[in-house]
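A reminder from the course coordinator: this example appears on the midterm review sheet, so study it carefully.

Given structure:
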């Protein structure tokens, strides 16, 4: 499947390590690579300038340029897997790069598998990542080969964020027992390609 169909990818390792490892279980840098069916993705930036009140005068505002990115994901996930032949019983997808000028990345990407987890597998992964302090988690939204236009290279518009999970929630609604709703709240660094 193309990256456009599953544009929300989570992995515990960097983009480069993941491609070099070849996907799931093929090396320690990025053991888990999961694709999420999200119906809502929100990236927000917040900052808190300091306001100093002055008696009988307009207050002073001090802006130190401190900002806090956060990302919220929500969507649907299956209750059980439809794949019962290969452990860990998840459907695999191949994430292919769309950039025509990066042959090495294209070759590596075509053999890179991500997995569509069912609810208990996703819950296990989230619990593992939340309770471990030394895991580097990356969130990729779309095709991140060329996040913005550079000279004649066409941009792909995707992004990579380093994140830390704050909250993961699973909810099942009446008459929809075949699937769960999930939501995740993450704090993030600035987009990986952004340079100050």
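Designed residues:
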């Amino acid at each position: 499947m193309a990256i456009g169909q599953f544009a929300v990818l989570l992995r515990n390792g960097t983009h480069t390590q993941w491609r070099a490892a070849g996907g799931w279980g093929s090396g320690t840098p990025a053991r888990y690579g999961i694709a999420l069916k999200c119906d809502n993705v929100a990236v927000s930036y917040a900052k808190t300038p300091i306001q100093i009140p002055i008696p009988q005068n307009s207050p002073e505002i001090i802006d130190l340029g401190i900002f806090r990115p956060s990302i919220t994901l929500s969507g649907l996930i299956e209750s059980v897997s439809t794949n019962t032949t290969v452990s860990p019983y998840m459907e695999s997808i191949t994430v292919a790069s769309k950039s025509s000028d990066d042959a090495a990345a294209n070759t590596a990407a075509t053999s890179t598998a991500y997995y569509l987890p069912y609810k208990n597998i996703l819950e296990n992964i989230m619990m593992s990542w939340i309770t471990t302090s030394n895991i580097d988690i990356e969130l990729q939204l779309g095709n991140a080969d060329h996040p913005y236009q550079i000279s004649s290279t066409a941009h792909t518009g995707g992004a990579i964020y380093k994140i830390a999970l704050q909250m993961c929630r699973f909810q099942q609604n009446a008459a929809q027992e075949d699937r769960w709703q999930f939501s995740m709240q993450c704090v993030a660094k600035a987009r990986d390609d952004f340079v100050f």
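The CA atoms of residues 37 and 75 lie 6 Å apart. The first helix runs from residue 15 to 21.
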